[in-house]
């Protein structure tokens, strides 16, 4: 059976960098004085993911351009720390490693990595291709279906949680289609999306279990306690804006198709030379 793996490159890259950026034990500079810690840890993590497939894989990255979400909500992702220059200097190296490993990677102007992954996942699922998404972003939980599994990275790849439909229900008591409405109510601090005051995860789950979705919640405000009703009513416009911001786009006009995600390259001289140049001692193999 065909298997597609989709990797949130930004998520993996940032985790790789911060895993050793302030470590006293792991050297971050090579003999040329170049910082290669993100590259080194990214490769370590990515090789473990590669062991899971011999078929198709794609790594998606955010575009530096503003997205449609920024145009509609100017404070989208506002307040995030500035990306360290040491990491910026390694991004092209990470992408070069992927290219030499025969791994498709992609960024597309005005779209986020989430949207690229969502589009590919939906295309694959529609063809009954088993699809696994690796990220630390819970937004991907909205994509889970009979063919799509989301693996949330908690701590490198040493601690991960694999979510399918039963696991999602076990942990959240929600269906995949309710994840967006859940986050619309509680907010998402990582993207600077503010939720409804006094509506935490437990209350959001209770409301969605009772009414099913945002529309039905707002049709039944009179059934709720006065303070909760007032908070929901006062934040109604914001809640539906949140829904737009949190919903991933599954219709990105990609410049490639699923066939181009096939893993084709094995260990080669250029990859070995790249690893040696940057003094990465381990010999990495992508496909036999």
TrEMBL record:
Residues 2-264 form the 5'-3' exonuclease domain. Pfam families: 5_3_exonuc, 5_3_exonuc_N. PANTHER family: 5'-3' EXONUCLEASE FAMILY PROTEIN, FLAP ENDONUCLEASE XNI. GO terms for molecular function: 5'-3' exonuclease activity; 5'-flap endonuclease activity; DNA binding. NCBIfam families: PRK14976.1-4 (NF011547). It comes from Candidatus Phytoplasma pruni. Keywords: DNA-binding, Hydrolase, Nuclease. This is 5'-3' exonuclease. It comes from the Bacteria. SMART domains: 53EXOc, HhH2. One of its GO terms (biological process) is DNA replication, Okazaki fragment processing. 5'-3' exonuclease acting preferentially on double-stranded DNA. The keyword Iron-sulfur does not apply.
């Amino acid at each position: 059976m065909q298997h597609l793996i989709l990797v949130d490159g930004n998520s993996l890259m940032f985790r790789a960098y911060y895993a050793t950026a302030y470590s006293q034990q792991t050297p971050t500079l090579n003999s040329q004085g170049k910082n290669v810690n993100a590259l080194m840890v990214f490769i370590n993590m990515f090789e473990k993911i590669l062991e899971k497939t011999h078929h198709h894989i794609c790594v998606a990255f955010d575009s530096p351009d503003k997205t449609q979400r920024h145009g509609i909500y100017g404070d989208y992702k506002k307040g995030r720390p500035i990306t360290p220059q040491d990491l910026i200097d390694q991004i092209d190296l990470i992408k070069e490693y992927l290219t030499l490993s025969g791994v498709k990677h992609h960024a597309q102007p005005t779209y986020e990595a989430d949207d690229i992954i969502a589009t590919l996942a939906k295309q694959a699922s529609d063809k009954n291709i088993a699809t696994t998404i690796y990220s630390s972003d819970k937004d991907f939980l909205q994509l889970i279906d009979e063919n799509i599994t989301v693996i949330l990275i908690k701590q490198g790849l040493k601690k991960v949680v694999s979510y399918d439909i039963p696991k999602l229900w076990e942990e959240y008591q929600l269906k995949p289609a309710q994840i967006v409405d859940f986050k619309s109510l509680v907010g998402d601090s990582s993207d600077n999306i503010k939720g409804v005051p006094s509506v935490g995860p437990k209350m959001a789950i209770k409301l969605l279990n009772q009414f099913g979705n945002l529309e039905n919640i707002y049709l039944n405000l009179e059934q709720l306690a006065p303070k909760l009703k007032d908070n929901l009513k006062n934040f109604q416009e914001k809640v539906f804006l949140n829904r737009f911001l949190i919903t991933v786009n599954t219709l990105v006009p990609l410049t490639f198709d699923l066939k181009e995600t096939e893993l084709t390259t094995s260990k080669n001289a250029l990859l070995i030379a790249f690893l040696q140049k940057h003094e990465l001692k381990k010999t990495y193999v992508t496909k036999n």
